[in-house]
Specification:
- The chain is mainly α.
- The protein has one domain.
- It contains five helices and no strands.
- It has helices spanning 4-21, 28-31, 35-43, 51-65, 77-98.
- Helix 4 (51-65) packs antiparallel against helix 5.
- The radius of gyration is 16 Å and the shape is flat.
C-alpha cells in the first residue's frame, strides 16, 4: 500500500509552517529539536509506491531546489531545464493522482 511518503511529507510541511508562524522562531533554543526534524529522518528510505508518493517527492524537489538548481526565473539554461522538467513531471503526476 502506498501513500506513506506523501503522508510524511504533508506532515513535515505542516510542522515547518507551524514553526515558521511561531513568534519564538528567532529564539535559538526554540529553533533546536523541532518535530519536523524527526519527520525528516523518518522520510529517509521510504519507498515510492504510488503516484501520490511520486508527486510528493517531486514537490519536495521543487521546494528544495527553488532559487537554486530548479529555477525558471531566467537564470542558467541548466536550471531552467531542470525546473521545466520537474514542473512538467509534477503536473503529469498530479493528473495521475486525480484519475
Amino acid at each position: 500500500m502506498g501513500g506513506e511518503l506523501a503522508r510524511l511529507m504533508r506532515r513535515y510541511f505542516a510542522e515547518v509552517a507551524t514553526f515558521e508562524a511561531d513568534p519564538r522562531d528567532a529564539d535559538e533554543y526554540f529553533r533546536s529539536d523541532q518535530p519536523f526534524d524527526e519527520t525528516l529522518k523518518q522520510m529517509v528510505g521510504v519507498p515510492v509506491r504510488c503516484p501520490e508518493d511520486a508527486l510528493a517527492g517531486v514537490e519536495w524537489l521543487i521546494d528544495l531546489g527553488r532559487g537554486c538548481m530548479i529555477d525558471l526565473s531566467g537564470g542558467s539554461s541548466y536550471y531552467n531545464v531542470a525546473g521545466s522538467i520537474v514542473n512538467e513531471l509534477r503536473d503529469y503526476l498530479a493528473k495521475e493522482v486525480r484519475s
